[in-house]
Amino acid sequence: MKREILRTADGSTTIHLPDWDESYHSRHGAIQEAYHVFIKNGLSLFEGKPVSVLEIGFGTGLNAFITFLQAQKDGFEVDYVGVEAYPVAADEVLQLNYVSELKADDFVGAFADMHQSKWGTPIDLSAHFQLTKREQFFHDIADENRFDLIYFDAFGFRVQPELWSSEIFAKMFRALKRNGVLVTYAARSPIKRAMIESGFRVEKLAGPPGKREMFRAWKES
Q: Which pTM does this prediction carry?
């Protein structure tokens, strides 16, 4: 499938799949979307406490990198697991401009290590951040009561509805600890129904630039 590197409205890059007319991030701003959905409405709930994060769709590493930067800034510990079935190619990583756009030149090595580290092997990117990448299909996830927070960043329901099913969200529910949280950019009715069927309490929040709404889901039992 053809892949292109595009610059989004906030200046940051994303990968675009023309055959699907689908991008890894919002074309209204990749960095803006990531901060709004995953940091403001997810990570910030834990107020700098040690937190375990599962990312569904590691992709370009943007969500992992901004979480790493937040941990460096605020001094809290993150155990981060990123799941990806189809890793981004090395030449594509070289075309991503997140380090410069985030003014994070001091951490250019950390971003490179995120992508160059071995799959399935934990790596300490700093004293505050451990990363484990898993090359895995989402339906093969079998973690139980392990994570505080899930970043659900799969391709959209329009192109891959099977990734937004009750079966997948039941796996997410099991993977979370009690009072754990799942955040996603999505806000479609079938997705809400699948989340509720899986045991989540779902709330609708204001979305990132260019998108009216998003979901946050809680595991309360």
A: 0.97
Q: Tell me which residue of 156, 162, 155, 173 sits closest to 218, measured CA to CA.
A: 173
Q: CB-based contacts of 198: which residues, under 8 Å, 6+ apart?
A: 166, 169, 170, 172, 173
For the chain, 221 residues long, the average pLDDT of each consecutive 10-residue run is 95 96 96 98 94 98 98 97 97 97 98 97 97 97 98 96 97 98 97 98 96 97 78
Which two structure tokens, joined as six digits, stand for 216?
Answer: 């946050």
What pLDDT is attached to residue 221?
A: 78
Asked if 191 contacts 200 with a C-beta cutoff of 8 angstroms, the reply is: no
Q: How far apart are CA 33 and CA 27, in angstroms?
A: 9
Q: How many CA atoms lie within 13 A of 117 on its CB side?
A: 22
Work out the angle at residue 154's Cα, subtended by the Cα atoms of residues 152 and 158, and round it to the nearest 5 degrees: 125
Backbone angles phi, psi at 14, to 5 degrees: -150, 170
Query: Which two structure tokens, joined as six digits, stand for 59?
Result: 């992709």
